## 1
Amino acid sequence: MALLEGRKVSKSFGGVQALSQVDFAVERGTIVGLIGPNGAGKTTLFNAVAGAFKPTSGRIVFDGADITGWPADAVCRLGMARTFQVTRPFAAMTCLENVMVAAVNRHPQKPRAFIESFAREKLSFVGLAEMAGSEARQLNVIQKKRLEMARALATEPRLLMLDEVLGGLNTQEISQAVDFIRSLRDRLGLTVLWIEHVMGAIMQAAERVIVLDQGRVLMAGTPSEVVNDPRVIQAYLGDG
Amino acid sequence: MGGNKLLATCALVVAGMCVLPLGLGIYPQHVLIVSLFYVMMAASWNLLAGYTGQVSFGHAAMAGIGAYTSGILAVKAGLHPWIGVCLGTALAAVLGFALGALCLKMGGIYLSLTTLAFSQILHIIIVNEYAITRGTMGLQVPGLMEEYSKITYYYIMLAAAVLVLAVLYWMIHSNLGLNFRAVQNDEAAAKSVGVRVLRVRVLAFTVASAMAGFAGGLYGHYLLLITPEIPSLDLQFKVLAMTVIGGMGSFLGPILGAFALNILEEYIRVYGEYHVLVFGSVALIVARFAPNGLIGLWRKFRPMKTRPAVG
């Protein structure tokens, strides 16, 4: 059974149908890319899955449990973590404290010393060890994305949902980031659902790709199936 | 600061506060007692506004709940003031819980307006229920002890303030404090990492209200006359000013602010109505030149102990 499954998920905001009847599945231990043109509904789907809001209709099933309409904190405790497209660090708290917030809610009974070293470990995992004592607001965009990654990892998720983590990186940094995300799966056994505009990265890292367009699933398949599909090309390039 | 050094500093400050009134006359002692009341009010309001971002205007109302509950029970039912103070604290906690739950889905200005409405409704009830509260005339209540003694009141208020501050310090520096600040910084992000945002917000409301009720109960039995001045917006805004001028969101800020403004108020009392003008000017100057309050100023001009790594 898939780790995460969406069944006919729809979401409308007033008259705007942001998602309609979206069916998808994310298998355990895979990296799944979620792509589509701007406004296709990718982040809306993320929000509906992670509990930021309730879908208008349809069901979301995580590891066999129906989590439709669950609040985000409950979804997180069940083992799902996310990053935000526009980063949302706890700006006035230090990087270490940012990660500690996630850690104390995963391990509420553990002593402070454990929480702190656990959080430091996550920070060095994403390469932010030296910034532990700095306020999150002092970080640049790329560091903020890393901080969010560390914070998400500190919740010890089974499913990690990444929302455009490669924005602003150069080619070399992108390939490092791709290796990093792969290692999350290979070393930590995480399942990854990943929204990304940098198509090359998705094509390298993902086993499956789901393409959204105008709130619908245009197609789902392996990266090579997707890039060669005329519908996908048309969705991105428009009607010639 | 290490645990031992911190404890030693606290012990020193408390010891100093114990000795302080001995050489002073009745009037300065009175000013200190009132200051200690404001320390409790500002520090607990800071838990709401400074640590969870809920700018409540119902905090003075909660002090009023504490004062009137205890006062009315003492006058009408002959209950001992100490039991009354406990019941007043409990009622303030219950109302704080209810008000916090009511405001759960609200943020920013809506929460402020709802708590403002609560405060005004309570004020109107107290002014109009003359038979029970004696309205604006004020309710004469018995003192905390048989024989009136300024210095004993001082030590009671000091002990109460130390208790309130110790609980606040413990909360802020526990896991709860991390959750409080996360909620204030970004609710959606806090939720996404598993913080039970609703629970955290209601808890802050309940605890802060209980502390205001406790402070108000003691204060009423000190003044011996409870008037609608306690649950008034004047008092609310004074608490707000103390917290903001002292340094919202820091532990020491509201304590400094409470002493500074309350003592300042005594000095500018001679200007009559104009003392409000001085108050406002101080608030303006601090807001413009020291947005993080007195405590922020101090941190700015003190050599940094730990410099952030260069990134």
Note: Chain A is about 40% helix and 25% strand.
## 2
Amino acid sequence: MITLDGLRKAYGPRSVLDGVSLALAPGRITALVGPNGSGKTTLIKCLLGLARPDAGRILLDGVAIDAAGAYRARIGYAPQAPHFPANLAVGEVFAMLRALRPGATIDEGLLESFGLRAEWGTPVGTLSGGWRQKVSLAAAWLFRPDVLILDEPTAGLDPIAAGLFKHALRGARSDGRTVCITSHILSELEEFADDVAFLNEGRLRFAGPVHALLEETGMRRLEPAIAALLRGLRVEQGGVGAVA
Amino acid sequence: MSAVALVLRAGARDLARNRWLLAYGLGLAGVAELLFLFGGAGNQVVLSLLNATLLLVPLVALVFGTMHVYASREFIELLLAQPLARPAVFTGLYLGLALPLTAAFLLGIGVPLLLHGAAAEAPRAALVALAAGGVFLTATFSALAMAIALGTDDRLKGMSLSLAAWFLLTIGYDGGVLAVVSLFGNWPLERPLLGLMLGNPVDLARVLVLTSLDASALLGYTGALFRRAFGSAVGPLIALAALSLWCALPVSLARRRFVRRDF
């Protein structure tokens, strides 16, 4: 269970997270959605300790995360645009990651199903975007983490790889792990998301089960439901131009 | 292996296969070869190599280092998402940049010197001083590159700052010293000039080599002053101490930025 409590973060004068409180439950997949620049990536970076919130707390199973970062042993992270040292081979990247966490449980399921062994000697710099994404996802899965944080995980994946990924994702859910995923492809999120957290301009505008969002907005699909939420916000904020 | 050693090994492996780094080492070797073709004796080659080192090593360390940090941005984020403490990641990344650059420098100038037997001709102290000067310059300027690149996300600005730092510390500083000498030539300038020299790692590296080469005529104004003030035994030691301090400064600045900043 991850709990965010009153998270605030500003970059200079620009407020990116404006008091976000949210709970991510184990055994559920939470879709973190919102327009570009709504604070999704900043929220993820705060969770990982890459960025430090100006105010608020982050708790992992009730314990505040520490600056030294030992808690990150429980987290698997796949960034939005993964890049590894260009001249390292795929196998060398995995060997390094494993050496950094000696004694950790190893789960090479996703690595095997993506067929990464066939690219073991290939320099990462020569891989296509989709293959880099596969390396990044397999690395996130590698230590069987309690928490998976995935930023745009399906971008660049071919349909077969995307299918394998979704299979692994459902496996993680049934294992009782906490999954947080961002994507702009709402139709895809609909396939596996249990909960939705909707961010707009740094504020959490909805958090709850997908079906609750659909009921609240009177829509049958995620995409029009989110659009309805956004429209509602713009009307609320006034300004005729903003409605369009 | 410790986290520092693992990050260092990954960085060093990556750079050992980097084409630009290979070009740097070969370029230095080419310069040395040319100097032997046209120059001749060991002493003169060491002197000319010194001048090439003083200009090229800071330039390459700054430009290559800045580019490297920007190119490693996503990899740094991946490392920081692992259960590692930031200071350890910084040390690994810094050594992973500075050590391959140092190796390229030492091999680039070392192999031609050994092949031509200049090691036997030139005074050993001068060769050691040249190597030490280059190593310190590499360590100092690659740390400065990291401090600059970690200080701004604007790559163009970072690169411009790096080039400006190179210009100021290599060419600009000498010009400034000359201007001071010619403007205030009627005053006793010994002490302020010694201070000025200690304030620039490039000058220090030059003095380190020249005092050990026994080439008084080439010491220049500040170099001669330096030798008179400290003597040829203590002089190089003082220069080395000042170079170490100069190296520690950008390293601690870069480390501080790395530990504190948001990624």
Note: The radius of gyration of chain A is 19 Å.
